[in-house]
Write a structure and sequence with these properties.
The structure is a single chain. The N and C termini lie far apart (about 55 Å). It contains 20 helices and 23 strands. With about 525 residues, the protein is α/β, with parallel strands linked by helices. Helix 5 crosses helix 6, helix 5 crosses helix 7 and helix 13 crosses helix 18. It is about 35% helix and about 20% strand. The protein binds D-xylulose. D-xylulose binds next to helix 13 and strand 19.
Length: about 525
Amino acid sequence: MSLVLGLDSSTQSLSAVILDTVSASVVADHSVNFGKDLRQYRQPHGYDESGARGEVHANPLMWVEALDLLLGRMKKAGVDFSKVEAVSGSGQQHGSVYLKGCFHEKLAGLKADSDLKSQLAGSLSRSSSPIWMDSSTGEECAEIAAAVGGNEVVCARSGSVAVERFTGPQIRKFFKEDPEAYAATGVIHLVSSFFASILAGKSVAIDHGDGAGMNLMNLAAGAWDPDLVRATADDLMEKLPGCAAAETKCGGIAPYFVEKYGFSPNCETVVWSGDNPCSLIGMGAAQPGKVVISLGTSDTLFAAMPEPRTDPNGFGHVFGNPAGGYMSLICFKNGSLAREAVKEEFSLEWSAFEREALAKSPIGNGGFMMLPFYEPEITPALDTGGPVFSDDRERSWHETVRAVLEGQFLNMRGHSEWLGVAPERVYVTGGASENDGIAQVIANVFGVPVERLDVPGSATIGAAMRAAHAIGGDLRDLEKKFSQPKEGRTIIPEAGAKERYDEFLKSFMVFLAGQK
Ligand code: XUL
């Protein structure tokens, strides 16, 4: 038996899986939902909903408390942590945590007779953390780009143009708006490296996968880019942790976790990465060839790439692939956010998104279209103030369900053509991917079969696989064990659907262009 633990701090929850890499089985699978289990923070979807439009922050102490709650629940449920050989994790990307210089001492002195939240609260230099949904830094993006010679330079060096939700522009905004608190900040962590530091009991590095989502890292060098760092904020270089490869080991787990939860002091901690890079590993897509669509709070489309290829329109990103090389990623903010909004509008169950319900309206919805942008969209960058419909008919629930799904996946197809990959199959993951109706719309719009994998949460599994890889496990072998398509669950495109959507995509892109 060889056990590894993977954690995933996503927008709405903190999850954990323990994999037995010898018997190829998932031996524990637990989760804490921020909105439901930590109601006292009043962040029902994992973030503060009272911020100005475009400003989205979460409470980092809620994440810290979730870690104690999750491990405590697992211990109570009989999980024996003493056999876990390594732990790593996955974090929602781009979000940042601002800490005073005393964070280091606080981590080193964590006492098991108290909890993480009360011991770490005093080390925050900023009480809230901007997360990936924040789109309030347009001005800072323009300033950073101008300072280094334009967005072409930012993109060539960091893999993306300056992007509102990326950490660099967010840091610049904080530096401008609250210079005193910025000056009192000793270290700035990503969600991923913040958790990794707590587990390791010391401040640890940001990996190349998640580091590439900051507009601060030089992709080719795998190190902070001095010009980008200088353009972002004063004295920033000394506030950034190091950059490191995704398989970097950080030493044994902190005594706090040994004493409180029964981990072995020899349990190796491994740097964390972003949720999308971890999901790439969990989906068995570390080598180029597989295209993955992840259906979460945001929907993302990503693939491993041998050479970095950047998006001429600036919507796509290049991140480090935790297995080496690069990955491309496109993020659509209105993912489950939009599907849930339609579900709530008509008080539906998820069965209303299944194939039987979708059959109530024709493919292409008789030309009826929806731009499902409940929140300001990232791809394309567009704030329509809410969803937009192609006409103001009285919409039935089933027309609206079809319209939201067709709108999401036509937008995804239209904005991923620059990748220049014509996949033979698409691999889908995330909660909504279990729904056959949603998978059917993807198969129809892209015109290829859709596969689901046999794993619960590819980011969490990917994090555990990365932990196993860092202590000597073979990634190909781990993929064979944990990243196999679920048998009998392939969804084939319906006859004539691809041709219908080839045409419909043109009208959709014209409709979309009319809103800009
Ligand atoms: C990717 C992105 C989101 C977050 C949250 O660029 O912003 O996918 O990682 O999952």
